[in-house]
Amino acid sequence: xxxxxxxxxxxxVITYCLVTGRTVGIGAYVARLSRRICQVENADIxxxxxxxxxxxxxxxxxxxxxxxxxxxxxxxxxxxxSTVSNDYDGVRQLLRWLSYTRKNVKAxxxxxxxxxxxxxxDRCLNYLPSQNKENDxxxxxxxxxxxxxxxxKSGWGKTVxxxxxxxxxxxxxxxxxxxxxxxxxxxxxxxxxxxxxxCIQQAGQVWYPDSAYKTAEAIEDFxxxxxxxxxxxxxxxxxxxQKDMFEMxxxxxxxxxxxxxxxxxxxxxxxxPYGELRGGAWAVIDPTINPVCMQMFADPRSRGxxxxxxxxxxxxxxxxLVPLMRRLDKEMIRLGILEKEGNDVKVDINARIQLLMPTxxxxxxxxxxxxxxxxxxxAVGAVKEVVKWEESRAFFTRRLLRLCIEQDIYxxxxxxxxxxxxxxxxxxxxxxxxxxxxxxxxxYSYPDEDAIKLLREERKQIVAFLVGxxxxxxxxxxxx
Length: 480
Fold this sequence. Notes:
By secondary structure, the protein is of the alpha/beta class.
């Protein structure tokens, strides 16, 4: 019964589990069903104790329960979100996690006071990641309030960084990308004499099965906590080798789309300086997955596109390079004339092509790269705005506050249960301003500061309009 109740509780309230001692069997399942686990270092999460397993195996294989479910195991497999040294630190950790959440799921949004904030929202971001050197992505957390970022699951799925933070006093779930290569340690199993400990290298900016699953789980948890989601997107795609396909990278990548489709809170996707979004990675976090809640932005120095420039040249422009040489290069033009006159210049032409190919290929790559810039992404509607990194903190704080106030108004007007409810409320909000201003007024192109002021001043009128409009929609639906 307790397992079923814990599973149902996860969908109704925010559940936590502090493991302070050995938890066995159903206790281990209850811990996992609570999802957000904080494990004390000397506490073990196991299904069967070491002595019982040794008895079944008929020999002394395991020397302690820590080999089965200690922090060394549970932090590396993603079950434990955080580890602490004692019970006191564990309680403090849970309180920190609770501080990011609302009183309850339906509690009204509490607006932060920017005037008395210790970390000004207009603070310029001095840290800038370098283009050609390895960078620690955790340094980019300076976009959030000072010391507010709290990482979870740091020992598992290391190519993705997840956690919670505050932006201008607003609690958010955070997903960022590890750009450096990481190493995954797989311990040897004492029960299998032939097994050996392995250390596997994983490239940065790539989703592997573990990090894709980690991303999907984090999105689900943040949605249950009614947190806005902030994604610092910098992926080149998914790992697609035989091993990764066997380990279900495709399935876990699809889980990311599933969770974003169900997200009922604002989602901001931002491609940071010198970051890029490519291939399948773009496909799974494209705003069209959930246009009601998702918005994508990019720094002017970022890039985005299905193919990288080299791939675009190889696929689309490879056959055009030689005709381009024949048209533009004076020597190729001369050799072409001689060829038409019947002279045997095939060897000379091939030699000239080999000489010019690297230069023309680099030109083609540069041309293809111009189609992946942030300006181009905005022109084709792939991103909403181009936001400079140094000024992004102020911009996203105001944009996030605006979106949170909007959604709070929707929840005050009706009981929001699905994305369709939010979409109808957004349409009704546009109708309200079209009636109270003029028909050409576009709410979603209105500046954020002015929009926040307007929402505060006319909140009661807006709620009343939305409620009336919702009743009209219901009556229209059922032919009343």
